[in-house]
Amino acid sequence: MPAFSFEKISPPANRGPIAPIVVKKRGVIVQILDRFVEARVRKQKGAVSRAKQKKKM
Fold it and tell me: Which pLDDT score, from 0 to 100, does residue 12 have?
């Protein structure tokens, strides 16, 4: 008699439908942080473009 046995896994075609992936809403704190980051990126891009304009003059 074997000491152990392997579990039979059915092939992918015989399995049921895949459950839909649930997208969780992001927390309020994360949304606020995202806004700060976006504003900072915009500000940095503006500073870089202004510096390029000053170099041309």
Answer: 65
Res 37: pLDDT: 94
Provide the domain count of the chain: 1
Q: Could you tell me the CA-to-CA distances from 16 to 5, 9, 21, 23 in Å, in that order?
A: 25, 13, 15, 21
Is 3 domain-assigned? no
Q: What is d(CA 46, CA 40) in angstroms, rounded to the nearest whole number? A: 10
For residue 18, CA distances in Å to 6, 28, 44 come to 24, 30, 44
In a domain, 17, yes or no: no
Structural domain boundaries, residue 43: 26-57
